[in-house]
Every structure is written in structure tokens, then in C-alpha cells.
Design goal:
single chain; 145 residues; alpha/beta; Rossmann fold; 5-stranded parallel beta sheet; 5 strands; binds 1,3,4-trihydroxy-5-OXO-cyclohexanecarboxylic acid
Length: 145
Amino acid sequence: MSTPVLILNGPNLNLLGEREPETYGAATLRDVVERCSRVAEDIGLNVEARQSNHEGRLIDWIHEARTTTAGIIINPGAYTHTSIAILDALNAYDGPVIELHISQVHRRESFRHHSYVSRRADAVMAGFGVHGYELALRHIATLLG
Ligand code: DQA
């Protein structure tokens, strides 16, 4: 098995499918992870998916990922807009990082327009819906050669 790509989801994304479906869609996080696992298998990747509502836990997982994963796809949820600590953790990570937002954040409230994480991200995706996870995975496969 190849070194896994970590799909990391931050706060409130456990409620995908229930929370603001007009913005985030009807698919659940489980649906997203299942789809990603299938795509990963097709393209010869291995994925590991984690979600937490807690900033420190996300940071611990990013630290752990330094030696155990080939790349990170991260949807930091609202921490995108507030967390210098998550940015610092990602700055200590050497592999490719893709920042992903289900919604088109730039069309939403102005407080969602700024991302700390973008300073580190190799690519930023917003507005592709949950389909973005699959696209990010395919892109990271390209980056990893
Ligand atoms: C989000 C956008 C953030 O602004 C928001 O706080 C989220 C989800 C997205 O996926 O569109 O929780 O990251």
C-alpha cells in the first residue's frame, strides 16, 4: 500500500448533509470519504480521512502526518479564517497541501474571504461542492507523480 494522502476536515463538517444543505449539499461526510476511497483505489492512492471540531486535534494530526502521509487535502472549516496555529502546523509539513472549500467562499460573507491556510497551500479550491474532494485527490496524484 502506498503512503496515504490525508483528507482532513475541520469543525462542523461532521454535519455535512444536515447542515445548511443549500450551501454544502446533501452528501454526508461518510459519502464523501467512500467516494474518495473508490477514486483513490482507481488512481493507485491510499487515503486516510479524519475530522475534528477541535483545533488542537487537527494540529496534532498535521504533525503526525509529517512522517506518515504523502500529502494533505484540508478543509479547515471556519478555522481557515482564524487559525494561525493551523497555518504554522502546515508550514512544518513538507508534502503537497490542497486547501478545499465546498462552498464558493468568495461569494459569501467578507469574513470568509481571508484564509490563513492559503499562504501555505499549493492549490486552493472553492465552490466545487463535495466533488472538489475527488478533484483534489486527482490533482494530488499528479503532484505526487
Ligand atoms: C467551508 C467554508 C468556511 O467558511 C466554513 O466556515 C465552513 C466550510 C467550506 O467548505 O465551504 O465550515 O470551509
